[in-house]
Amino acid sequence: MDFDSNNVQIMSISNKRAREIRVALVTIAACMYVIALFKSTTYSASTMACLNQPNGIFNGGAIFMTAVTILFFYGSFFTVLDFDQPMPILICILLCAIVIGLGVHYYFRCFEINKEISTNLNEGSAIQSLYSQYSQLMEGVKPISRCLTYHTGDYYKNRNTKCVAIEGCLTSGTASCDENKGAKLVDFYVASSHQSCVAPLSSGSGNYVSTEMLKTVLNAGARFVDFDIFAHISDNEVVPVVRSDLNNEESHNYILLEEIWETIDNYGFPDSHGDPLFVHLNLRTNNVEIADKIAESFTKSIGGQHLLDVRYSYKAKKSIAREPICKFFNKVILVVTGDTSHTLLDELVNLHTSHNARILTAEKARTPVNPRSFAFSNQNKFTIVRPEIYDTNTNPEDAWTHGCQAFMMNYWNLGTLMKNHCAFFKEASYVMKDFPLQENRITATVKKQRKQKV
């Protein structure tokens, strides 16, 4: 009796331990599954990029997720059915261990996927080919700083918007700048790029960004560049990064914002081209820490000679858009869409789309409710326009007819509309608007004189 009782007790203990092992197996698998999901959405460049990255015949993220899923359901299966045959269990666990080993190896390679993607894009032929095409199309583009009559104000007195080049001893528009009569920023159309880092890859291959594409855009003469800013966790630290968002699809990789500033500092102001450079940051996060880090990296990375002082803040009494363009040669004009209140970034913004600038869709710019009033407002307010379809281009002519200054184009799509855009800016990256779309300065002067007499 005692012997049987001992056997029953031993079997009970054995079954209890077996159940404990199975429960532990399921728990470990569940934890690994949660960790895998967390890692793939937080630390890799993107979930899709990691799970879709090929590694020979293996796919790292997919193998890892599959392995922990198999382990989880095997453990659940054996626990629920109380399956007590050791050999099948050992075989299943061995197979799971092999798959997990492969998965872990390739999954951790996914941590380097962002660097690998960037390297492949930068060294690939697609962007290099586009760079070459733009170099041919835009050969001969000259800076607006050479147009003497724009900066002295004589163009308005002579009623002639044609650029009259500087001659003689003057070497730049800065030397001839008349702060009262010089042509204002709002008086020009500016060659503008939308999502300026998007790579020119074929449809269906995914959405990617590259600093080499930004170099191409700058080389093509764009003086308004545009970036979507996201918060990204790297090494347990939140950092600002640039990713594109086309047709509700975020890019599979990202670029550190510091790399963007370095590219602008190195390539944004070549010796032959010192025209003002608008940099538009579309904040896709409300993280205050991110806004502060944007400000810190901007002032640290952009050379001091390219920074504007605080008197040109978007909160200033007179908007920078109404200042003469000749005051901003070799300067970065910072434009922001998004909340910057109570941040360091707020002190650096020159144009804010909720204050002294605005950003519209192409449809709204093409068919405003009151076209006359809209065109009149564009004499003093800086208007940015987004294309209708992000992966193609939209005709900017209607928006230009209403005086919109910055119609953003998709430079990665060099089709007919983009070539027409290049032809429009063939002579210079800034093209002066017709007189009816500029503020009537003669009338304004007369009104001021009459007011003084009273």
Structural class: alpha/beta
Q: What would the principal axes of the Cα set say about the shape?
A: elongated
Tell me the helix content: 40-55%
* Major sheet strand order: 9-6-5-10-11-12
Please name the fourth-level CATH homologous superfamily of the largest domain.
Answer: Phosphatidylinositol (PI) phosphodiesterase
CATH architecture of the largest domain: Alpha-Beta Barrel
Structure notes:
The chain is built from 16 helices and 16 strands. It is α/β, with parallel strands linked by helices. The chain has two domains: 2-114; 185-453, Phosphatidylinositol (PI) phosphodiesterase (TIM Barrel). The strands form five sheets. The protein has a six-stranded mixed sheet with strand order 9-6-5-10-11-12. A four-stranded parallel sheet has the order 4-15-14-13. The chain has a two-stranded antiparallel sheet with strand order 1-2. Helix 14 links the parallel strand 14 and strand 15. The longest helix has 41 residues, at 2-42. The chain is elongated, with a radius of gyration of 30 Å.
Question: What is the structure about, briefly put?
Answer:
This protein has 454 residues and is α/β, with parallel strands linked by helices. The protein has helices at 2-42, 47-52, 60-81, 86-109, 113-123, 125-137, 148-152, 154-158, 211-219, 257-267, 288-301, 362-366, 371-377, 397-401, 416-424, 441-453, and strands spanning 54-55, 58-59, 188-190, 192-193, 224-234, 237-242, 245-246, 249-250, 255-256, 277-283, 332-337, 351-352, 357-361, 382-386, 406-409, 430-432.
